[in-house]
Amino acid sequence: MAIEWAGSTPELLLALDRDATGTLRSQLETALRDAICTGRLKAGERLPSSRELARQLGVSRGLVQECYGQLNAEGYLCARTGSATRVASVRAVDDEPAPGAPPDASRLRVDFAAGVPDLASFPRGDWSWAQREVARTVRNEALGYGDPRGSEVLRGVLAGHLRRVRAAVAEADDIVVCGGFAQGLGIVLHVLARRGVRRVAFEDPGYGDGATMAAADRAGIEAVPVPVDDLGLDVDALDASGARAVVVTPAHQWPTGVVLAPERRRALADWACERDGVVVEDDYDAEFRYDREPVGSVQGLAPGRVLGLGTVSKSLAPGVRLGWILCPPALTRAVAEEKRLADRGSPVLDQLALAALIESGRYGRHLRRMRPLYAGRRAALVAALAEHAPAVRLTGLAAGFHAVAHLPGGTDERRVVAEARRRSVGLYGMSTYRASGAAEPPRLVLGFGDLTETAIRDGIGKVADLLRS
């Protein structure tokens, strides 16, 4: 007869078979040792007390203590008097990297990943203040399921913010709060699919993680690439693509960093009106501009044809998981219904905390504090490349916290990326953002938002010879 125990910390299933030839102690030792070696029990996880495990398994406490003592002696467990028994650091069987394999991202000393803000600068004190204020003042009825569009308070605050800061045509009734860009885009694409849109255009180069294209596939819409040049999206190519919807990043194109030129902005608005098209505007990091005031949103030019997607993932942190969809009035009800079916609405307390942060002026103060910080890191990147690899040209520096490094002709972009990782430096090639996957011309997308100036200088120094090649 087998005795099984399912523990809550850690989650683990152990089995002792009293009819087996081995002793119960050897069975328990083997089960725990295997769980540690295969990674089912991770380093630092707490095991049940000997008394509790003995009770659950129906064995003596002494048997469990002997088992724990043996595994402690072998180095699988660690225990101190008065403290819980925990799993020691033991390399899993398949955890040994292959010879010559590059380190994974968690082991990188310097990671130039793009799209990541300075996580250490998240305004913890202001956010805690906002949460306390909300918990103290929130009305009981606000804690129900409520409007699927989101908190009326936050929608009102966002509408005012978008009108003032992004020159958008925004009313609270036409904003739907969502869980970030990915959810917002998925909702929009499903709504467009039900309205007969069968083809959506994406900028090329553009989103390289595959998730955005997969969102179109899940909605049953064909995704087609449309080229981007030094003036932004090629609207003539968009017109020729046969798409009835397009996803664009006009304020700071992802990942090239170019700004959609004024004549292209007008042409895009005209295309939407003349072709019965829809523009999905991803306004992902327009708050951080260094050469002049941020450009206004395209939504302000054609509010009946543009769905504006915004988040606080870059201004605060991705982990906040809050964003919004600014809808044309004709699509608001459909977008809100899609959101209702998805999850009944985003967490209301977090919505109210964000509203309090914006209304109090603390959100604006945070942005003003971050702009010079990112500008300093931007300057450090420019200076480091000028010193170590002066032949590398940087573009896309007008806004945000990533830039594009143009490597010398003939450079093997993929070799540079792979060799840099062997040196524990994360570099990212433009090829991953191109629809074709082509590595020519060789370019790197360098993020500096979550790196200190010292780390930027050190990282560039470590790979300088690769960049000069």
From TrEMBL:
Source organism of the structure = Actinomadura citrea
InterPro entries, per the entry:
Aminotransferase_I/II_large (IPR004839), HTH_trans_reg/aminotransferase (IPR051446), PyrdxlP-dep_Trfase (IPR015424), PyrdxlP-dep_Trfase_major (IPR015421), Tscrpt_reg_HTH_GntR (IPR000524), WH-like_DNA-bd_sf (IPR036388), WH_DNA-bd_sf (IPR036390)
Q: Which Pfam families match?
A: Aminotran_1_2, GntR
- Does the record carry Ligase as a key word? no
> What keyword terms does UniProt attach to this protein?
Aminotransferase, DNA-binding, Pyridoxal phosphate, Transcription, Transcription regulation, Transferase
Can you name one GO molecular function term for this protein?
DNA-binding transcription factor activity
Superkingdom as given in the UniProt entry: Bacteria
Q: Which family does it belong to?
A: In the C-terminal section; belongs to the class-I pyridoxal-phosphate-dependent aminotransferase family.
Signal peptide coordinates: none
Q: Which PROSITE patterns match?
A: HTH_GNTR
List the residue ranges forming a coiled coil, or say none: none
| Stated name of the protein | GntR family transcriptional regulator/MocR family aminotransferase
Which ranges carry the HTH gntR-type domain? 22-90
